[in-house]
Amino acid sequence: MTLRRQERKGSGYGLLRAVALLVALCAPGTVHAQATTERVVVNRFTGLAISGFDPVAYFTEAAAARGFERFEAVQDGAVWRFRNEGNRAAFLGHPEVYAPQFGGYDPVDVGRGKAVEGLPQLWTVYGRRLYLFASTTSKAAFAADPDGFAASAGRRWPKLKQELSQ
Question: Which of 20, 40, 101, 123 is the most exposed place for a label (fewest CB within 10 A)?
Fold first, then answer.
């Protein structure tokens, strides 16, 4: 009997598939949808800023690396994770340096007046600041004119940030 026929006969296959999907979505290491109504991009399921990636590791390891639960800190109402105590201490000492610019929202879209969450895996460090992007297209556009996009986003961010906090 094929799976389609089993589904039609009410074998519970559809329910099993739904449960498997739910388990996969809750598995550690899975990137979930993130909130877009916060001043800092926070995973709505876990409360983790930038999906638990260590913001300092972008600078020290030149990589998008997940932090660990044992090295957490709360900043701006979000839980941040780090790879080690040194990264945690560096962040707490200078969050304005290590936190992603524009709260982790894509600077290209922020420059257009829109809050579109950046993905921790699509990033660049430019001018000693971390930027996260929503797409490879945005990342490429930013790379072509980083000063222009950073300036445009910088002008629009205060108003957009205020709107996000309401």
Answer: 20
